[in-house]
Amino acid sequence: MTDDGAVTTSRVDDVLHVTLERPSRRNSLSPPMVNAFVDALTHAATDDSLRVVHIRGGGTDFCAGVDWISANTGERPRTGDLVRRVPHGAHRVIELVHSIQLPVVCSVRGWAAGLGCNLALAADFTVASTDAVFWEPFLERGFSPDSGSTWLLPRLVGLARAKSMLLLGEKVSGADAAEWGLIHRCTDESELDDVAAELLARLASGPTVAIGLAKQAIHYGLNATLPQTMNQELFNLELSCRTKDFKEGLAAFREKRTPEFGGR
């Protein structure tokens, strides 16, 4: 009997919790799990009632990447199989986390390796426990990095540290990852759930449309000039100024009170 694992979703108010469930394999993603993950994020991207997405691993680890053994069994595939297949699987997961106009939070315990590491890096906020280990093991396995690692790492921690992780395969602790700016925060394992819950509540109570547009502008600006970025900001400002949350924000400012955003 094979253990293909599962990607489960549960909703608490405006927060979608996505859990990677394959603890016997450190939550390494089987092909069915990758497909389910893509489906869950795709549905979240088009659900106007959601305000934040939370990704976590079941058990003691976050995600040990793609299970290459289960993904490459059976008859030898045609030449070009990876080029055809990966963009619709592992790469699509990273693209969705990066581009979805909702804040994405990852809670990391234990191993975050390969795709699991890049998933944590692509999230808007990653909180990790002190026992977390971030690792890019691609070259140690004999193949070149993928799932956005060569784009994400240099932008987050600079070339020297990116090369240490990607070319030398150096593992990074949760504490070092936070110190480097690789992730949002590191905390004791016993406090991780509370820290994540507090962050999720804060994001879920924010102006959801404006947060999504701000996220889009930040990512756009990474590959644009200052005038191009400011032009994009203007279009985003035009949209956010038409929301109910914008009116609530102005009213709260006038009335000297804390705004109560509804995510609309």
From TrEMBL:
<protein>
    <submittedName>
        <fullName>Enoyl-CoA hydratase</fullName>
    </submittedName>
</protein>
<dbReference type="InterPro" id="IPR029045">
    <property type="entry name" value="ClpP/crotonase-like_dom_sf"/>
</dbReference>
<dbReference type="InterPro" id="IPR014748">
    <property type="entry name" value="Enoyl-CoA_hydra_C"/>
</dbReference>
<dbReference type="GO" id="GO:0003824">
    <property type="term" value="F:catalytic activity"/>
</dbReference>
<dbReference type="Pfam" id="PF00378">
    <property type="entry name" value="ECH_1"/>
</dbReference>
<dbReference type="InterPro" id="IPR001753">
    <property type="entry name" value="Enoyl-CoA_hydra/iso"/>
</dbReference>
<comment type="similarity">
    <text>Belongs to the enoyl-CoA hydratase/isomerase family.</text>
</comment>
